[in-house]
Every structure is written in structure tokens, then in C-alpha cells.
Amino acid sequence: MLERRRFLQLGTLGLSALSFSGFKSNSETRKPIVISTWGEGIAANKAAWNILRVGGRALDAVEQGVMVTESSLNCCVGLGANPDRDGYVTLDSCIMDENANCGSVAFLERIKHPVSVARRVMEKTPHVMLVGSGAQQFALAQGFPLESAELSESAKKAYENWLIKSEYKPVINIENSKNQTAFAPNKLENGKWNHDTIGMVAMDANGNLSGSCTTSGMGFKMRGRLGDSPIIGAGLFVDNEIGAATATGQGEDVIRICGSHLVVELMRQGLSPENACKKAVERIIKIKGTSAKDIQVGFIAINKKGEYGGYCIQKGFDFAVCYADDKNFMIPGKFLI
Ligand code: SD4
Predict the structure, then answer these.
(1) What CATH number is associated with residue 146?
(2) From atom 10 of ligand 1, which residue's Cα is the shortest distance away?
(3) Are strands 102-108 and 129-131 parallel, antiparallel or unpaired?
(4) Sign of the C-alpha dihedral computed for residues 83, 86, 91 and 92 taken in this order
(5) Does the residue 237 lie in any domain?
(6) Is 197 in the pocket of ligand 1 (CB under 6 A)?
(7) I need a labelling partner for 185 at 20 to 30 A (CA). Which of 74, 76, 90, 179 fits?
(8) Using one digit for the tens of pLDDT, what is the confidence trace for 3-45?
């Protein structure tokens, strides 16, 4: 009630007032808010915030937000990203709104914005998921242009490098937290990214939640391999009564525990976003035993109060949080091993 009154007051002041309000006190809901995985999250949050700050819908924010990352060539997500082991970039993405509507595409080639195709699947078809050539055919029919199949410069180099050993081995996803600054996304010391995904969850001024997740998948993966990112419940889950969560890292191990759904269900049981993420990570570690040290998984989550948190298996995962014009910052994920 208090929240509603405050929003109505803001309405009379004009929506730009939202940009200054951000968060009030611990007892009140922090909204709007957007959080996303990894250092690219800063730029993606900024785009999402531009929608949220003027009262826009969380669904639009999470789509526009991750489109920034999908667009950035020489980054780790989208058409500029690392290819599969046969040399093709294949993209996976999903999106979910406050009404449990969801859409997903996987194994999609030569389309710049898989998240937008996922949204069209959600809005224009009776289905949740389209894959491969069918997803591409749908995208073209919806007016998305067919992009070049050529690899970006950085991906070409990385692929040539990988071909030397052609070692089929998942790489542990980490960033160089040491060099972390609020507005400079991190890379490893050699200047390379070694992760491939952005997941974003947001709550708008109306208190509605949405989320998106988009990836080129694990670098140099087996052709046809899908991870968690396009799978609702694994890479992303939103329940407008409770909260929203998204995942990054080794998708196989996120799928194994229906990771993002698990995080949201743990929040339903009363856990904070951070503790819910921690419990989900613990579940993976329990399953993997000593081999957990060879993988990375990170979860981030928000709840209906606008509280946020993240947890990962091992050091080097971070996430970006934004809830005001001047509050868009990185948080190193707490880790367990
Ligand atoms: C996958 N979860 O395809 C993705 C990879 C990832 O940072 O998150 N990389 O398994």
C-alpha cells in the first residue's frame, strides 16, 4: 500500500523522479532494479535502466539490456563470440515475463538478436521453444536479417588457437576481479573473455519481474550442444510472486538441478536471494564432489523486495547491479570452493 502510494506520488511528480528515487530504506521495496551477470552487465544494465527509470516494463528492459551485449562484436555473446568446434557460431536465448509467458530459441545461426527472436516465439507462436533451422526460418519470416556467417576477428583468432590442440574441455568461467572497476568490464589478464553468456533479471516500477538470458554457449562446444541458457527453469526463471533468477557457467550442471527454478523455489521458502543462490551452488557441489573444482557455475537472483544476491562455485564470477542513475556497480560473487 505504502509502495503504491509512493508510486502514485512519483506519478504526480513526473516519472523522471524515479531516476533519483532508486532505493529508500530497508523496510521498503527497492524498485526498479536490474541485475546481470559478468562485467558486460554494466553496459547492459545501463540500457535496461534507461527503460526502467521512466516507468518502462521489465520485459522491455531485459530484452533491450542484453541486446547491447549481443551487438558488441569481439565480445563473448552474440555473433562475435567463439564458434563451436566445427567453426560455426550458434546462439541460445530465452526470455520470461511476469505472467509466466516465456520464449526461447536454441542452436540459432546468423541472427544478431536471439533474445528478440525468443520474445517473438513467446508473443507470436503458441510455443515456448524453437531450435536450429526452424528457429532461423521463423526469425527470417519475422523480418530479422540473415547476417554473415563469418567469424569476428577475435573469434577467428581464438578458434585458430583452439584448433592447434582441439582439446574438448570445458573452460572454467572466471573474470579478473582484481582489475574490476565500476564502469570497466573485466577481462582476463590476456585480454580475453572466458565466458559466453549474459543473464539479466529486473523488477520495474510496477513491481513486475522479467528476465532474459543469451549466450553463444560454451566455446568450441560439440556441434548441436545446448546448455542451460535457453532452457526455462535452468538458465532463467521468473515467478512474479517470488522473484527471478538466472545462471551462468557450465550449463550441463545447471540443467541437472533445474538451477534457476531451484533458486526461485528456495526464495519461496524464505531464503534471501544470496542464500538461495548459495544453496543451489551447494547442490551442484554435492553432486559433483571433488570434480566441482573443475567447473564454474554462478547464479544471481532478485526477490519482490528488490533484494539481490549471487553465488558461485569458485572465485572469479561477478555481477552488475543497477537501481539508480548513479548506482550501476559490480559485485564479486561469493564463492564456495
Ligand atoms: C552454457 N551457461 O552454454 C552457458 C555458458 C556460460 O559463461 O554461461 N558461459 O552452458
Answers:
(1) 3.60.20.30
(2) 251
(3) parallel
(4) negative
(5) yes
(6) yes
(7) 90
(8) 444 444 433 334 444 444 444 444 689 999 999 999 889 999 9
